[in-house]
Amino acid sequence: MATEFQIYVVGTSEAKAMAVASAALRDLEPLESELSRFKRNSDISRLNHLQKGESTPIGIAALDCIQLAQDIHTATEGAFDITAGPLIAVLTNPDHSPRDPSQEELSKAIDAVGIKKIKLDHESLTATVLCDDLWLDLGGIGKGYALDQMALILKESGINNAMLDAGGSTLLAFGDGPDGNGWIGGLGEPNSPEIILKNNSLSGSGFSERGEHIIDPRKHCRVPMKKCNAWALAPYAALADALSTAFLVMTPKEIQDLCEKHEEIEAILPSI
Fold this sequence. Notes:
It contains nine helices and 13 strands.
């Protein structure tokens, strides 16, 4: 998943902590074989090579992750969209600079974007593609989903106090932390407060320079970055991961309304 994962465990022996953490980390490889679009035979890669109307069997992890993405797409009214790849391709050059596509290119890309362009069948564990040129990318939710699955392995092995870290941008903690007051998560911003995590997740997305652009899948266009970073607190890591991405294209009012509607989530926007 092109990131470094770390696990911190307290309240058990070093030998057990090492054994259980190693087992959780080993789970990353089969997850990546299902979820990464860069793996030639992954479930996501196979879906991206299907034509309109074709179906393929997919694993439980891929089905679960896509379903979560669809649910979050609905909750954010389209701000989070794992099918936005065709738009990114025509609106962005390989060096990430803005690109101005022809109207024909843009129309073709728009036709391939939309969370309803993929249909899931939970009974048969299959997915059907409802358009040509589908481009699924779980990069905005995959790290968080992996942390959630690793946490399940820890808990099933009797670990009840741990923090998991994916690349320093997504954290998942459960239990009371080393001193009984929770786990400390930083925002990576100068002079920013420390966040106490206890049975929840913190995730951040952002760009290093103002003036950069990001693709808004709702408007099918580039929008200038007004926020350098967006952080989301949520009960589980996949949700926090996806929301921090969605927050980058949502207005402060949209974010506020979402958080008021779903009291279990919180937004932190340190740079406006």
